[in-house]
Amino acid sequence: MQEEQQPEAAADPMSSSDVPEDGPKETSSVSQSISDADAFKILLEMKMKKRQKKPALPSTVTELETEDGSKVYVVGTAHFSDSSKKDVVKTIQEVQPDVVVVELCQYRVSMLKMDEKTLLKEAKEINLEKLQQAIKQNGVMSGLMQMLLLKVSAHITEQLGMAPGGEFREAFKEASKVPFCKFHLGDRPIPVTFKRAIAALSFWQKVKLAWGLCFLSDPISKDDVEKCKQKDLLEQMMAEMIGEFPDLHRTIVSERDIYLTYMLKQAAKQIELPRASETEPRKYIPAVVVGVVGMGHVPGIEKNWNSDLNIQEIMSSAGVHHCFMSLLPQCASSISFK
């Protein structure tokens, strides 16, 4: 799923108020004739001046580097944390990235558009119509799983009075302020994850998991959330319920670690600078990327960073392989800000 945000008008580097009234008339024509390549260089220089050589990064940030020198700053977050939102904003402001990658897929991108009030309402209103729609889209078991996980999210939302995904919305807003910054969706499509997770369980394991999710009621405090910055809250709760199902943990967490790592490395490819003419040699510079993911995925991303990754296998599932491999370009859908 791709979306474009209309870029805000760039400030003219030479405003009319800076030009003396008795100055040469040619000045305005010179500023108007500036080439795209020169305009890019001016904005890039402005961006580089704001980019800190030794950024003051939050403790939740893990710095990684590619073979060609590109930098990737992975912000480990708790999905219901105010401090995580501040960490994301601080990191993007300090490093002025070329790409921001978030742990969302095209099926959850609507989270970026909704305000907190709307998200709270959506999370609380789990009804038959939503269940029928989920089953129609993903099949009976995957649809039920989706609704049960939504119930878990709603439970946390009700306990904290805070909707999930705040760090992703902050990343989206902050990326829009950085010149030439692209916004990528970096998570595996959620129907693939659900179908692979369901396929990994026996019938009785599915019943036991559903039972645990249905009767989730333990109280959660904001202090609990902050403590869980060492491991994502939602995934920790899931892990406690599915600890005896290692295959389920593999599909929900470990496989997505691989997918997120792959997408971060794709985003970190060197950037080609614009050329004044076709005869000018191509020039490339290392990229700077900020990744915003649940803290529980950070160790897996570090573990897989220097490995050769093939995501073909983890995109396959009975009846869904060909469908979702065709969506791979969309999985990395980006929103450019200029």
Low-confidence stretches: 1-31, 318-333
Shape descriptor reads globular
Number of strands: 8
Average pLDDT number: 76
Distance between the termini: 20 Å
**What is the count of helical runs?**
15
Order of strands in the sheet with the most strands? 1-2-7-3-4-8
Main sheet attributes: strand count, strand direction, barrel closure: 6 strands, mixed
Q: Could you estimate the helical fraction of the residues in percent?
A: 40-55%
The assigned structural class equals alpha/beta
Question: Beta fraction of the residues?
Answer: 5-15%
Report the order of strands and helices: HHEEHEHHHHEHHHHHEEEHHHE
What does the radius of gyration come to?
23 Å
Secondary structure layout plus pairing:
Layout: H1 26-32, H2 36-50, E1 61-65, E2 71-77, H3 82-95, E3 99-102, H4 116-124, H5 128-138, H6 140-160, H7 166-175, E4 181-185, H8 190-199, H9 203-214, H10 222-227, H11 233-242, H12 246-267, E5 271-272, E6 284-285, E7 288-294, H13 298-304, H14 321-325, H15 328-331, E8 334-337
